[in-house]
Amino acid sequence: MAKSDDERYKDRLEAIEWAREVLADPATVILDVETAAFHDTDLPDDDPAKYDVEICEIGVVSAGGGALYDTLVGTACAISPEATAVHGIHPLAVESAEAFHERAYADLAALLDGRRVLGYNISFDRGVLKQAVAYSNGGDLAAAERWMARARWEDVMLPYSQWIGEWDETRGEYRWQKQPGSGHRALADTYTTLGLLHTMAKADPAWQPPLPGRRPRARTASQPASDKQVKFVNSLLSRHGVTKGEDRYRVLSKIVERPIASSTELTSPEASSVIDALKDDPQRWIA
After folding, report:
1. How many CA atoms lie within 13 A of 260 on its CB side?
2. Given CB 3.0 to 4.6 Å as the disulfide criterion, which of 118, 144, 162, 212 pairs with 166?
3. Closest CA to 19 of 171, 183, 193
């Protein structure tokens, strides 16, 4: 059952107050990681295998905007072409970088101890970080959980989605919002998240938010999607069991909000939007 405008307004006020409170907290830091491959979104959140992907970059900033940590991380496995296509980190870029257990493990243990760690969709960052810590402790997940418990972890995506106020009738909750302006680099994404917090904190509580509605995107001339983008889109669809042509085009049309008869008809910006949508919330588009 959808919430009334009064209920949504109260929820929005809570999100505004939360943003103001975390920004004023000197313990607050914002963290983001990039990975060498993509995680399996079909696995349940409590399955460690869901986050069994290597970290290749870590960024941390303070609530005041100071860059506290920005480093590439060496990986045992080569960064996949699909991951490079999204974040732009080439395998050669981390070839001489220190592995997580060689440097980042100790650095983050000191940096995050007692901190209030925020992130956008923090469950993913926390999950892959926990796996990295476990591997640094000989695969001991219990030790990794104790390491993670030294900090408090909070997700910015949930209050931001509450602030936007788009209700999902199917889930009975606010629709999770994609991180606007994400550049898919660790430090840059921490600043993007920090900007969202300031946007929320500076909002006028007296403004009654209108019910968000989907608006058709203005179509502009754009470059067609590259062969690599098309191939990646098709691989994501296959990964989520969308193999029939008619089903694929239904999903693509739903995401880009125009009729699509073939993935090769996508423009480059549309292909990027499809990739982000299928990575962030595939069930929203495939169901």
Report:
1. 24
2. 212
3. 193
